[in-house]
Amino acid sequence: MDAFLRGAKKAFGASAAPRVAVLGGGVSGCSAAHHLAALGCDVSLFEMGRGPGGRAGTRRSRSLPGLAVNHGAPTFDVRTDEGTAIMERLEAAGHAAEYVGVRGVLSAERGFSKSAASAVNWAGAGGSGMAGVSEGLLEEARKAGTPGSLACHYGAMVHALVPTMAAGGGGGGGGEVAGWSLVGADGSTLGATEDGAAPPPAPFDWLVVSGSGAAHPRWSEAFAGREAPLLAAASALRSEHGFEDEALTAALACIGAQEAAPCLVAMCAAAAGSETAAHWNAALPFDVAWVTEHPVVQKVSVQRDSSHPSGGDVSLVVHSTADYARSAPKDAYGVTSTAARLGGAPASAEREAALTAELLGALEELLRRHAGRFGLGELSCAAPYAEPLAWGPHLHRWGNCEPKGEPLYAGDAVAPRARVAFCGDYVLQEQGQKTNGKGKYVARMGSVEAALLSGATVAQAVAN
Fold it and tell me: The pTM is what?
């Protein structure tokens, strides 16, 4: 833990540590929670899924305890000094490792070609999958010696955000927000401690919104027309309290103007030692391939369990293009997805089975064009199967991939009067495409690295 806390000080002396609610357990939320706890805050993280990771998460199965399927980012590159420092500390603690898989481009017209990494690529260590990065950030924040504290609440979907105004606040846009309460679907206040104790009576001092979903109009498209929680709260602050924080208004306007690409993901796994696993290994001479010139498939990830002496389980994950996802029926969020289970997002098992077969079939057809060249073989992954799959196929819909538009810059991501701050892959530290003009790399909008750095930056801003 010392390596993580080197240079960090408890920022609040004898005064009470701020209680901070972090919405979302993706990389940015876990980074924010980690760094806030290291700076002495008492942090509660709320994630609607079963565990951390978000779009750099890992699907697991009760029926196959060792299965770990990265259904979002299978790996990510890091270019900045700050990002490298965080990842090297995670590596030293056993949570992350440099990614050594074969990467390349699979052109629909020209076949497959390997590509060399232009930066260090990272993934979760061992069998943890990509979620190991987020899990590691949280685990280190819980270790003895951390100045603050951390409690994680999974399966917790926030339906409403309720502000508490400071005494004398409101009226004509004056005053300040004193804190925030989080309300669940049943109207109860969220924030009970992990041992099941009653929720603390006081609101949280600060609200950190990781990811843009709870602050973006597209929330209503997924969740039965309900307005995004933070947009509804900002509206209530204006109408009921006459309060407006210009910094919050500007941040919400920036986020609302951003667009994001959806993606459908088909995933399945073949058991260790099976003919299907051997067949997939022979047909797919890569671990990650970005697909070009194809209307349906954008990326293919093959995940092999290298810990098994005779070749372990093999997982196959096929990511769709954004155009294909946009054209797909809207009732395709994954019947087992958190969005469907907790948020009421539309889901149709019959429709999802058809889309999964179409995605896997598109990959089969693509490989058939180039079979026998580039080390590629014909693939059989769509029904009917030669033998039962060990897991899947399943479908998942990512509604918020690859943010586009003007980023929210870190200096504009904190609204002190409203006590709201933002982090995510849509938040950048400074302007620049690849470098800031001083020879230093700038994290790319939409990257895991941007999410990681924004969490660290917002933690420092809130602590200050």
Answer: 0.91
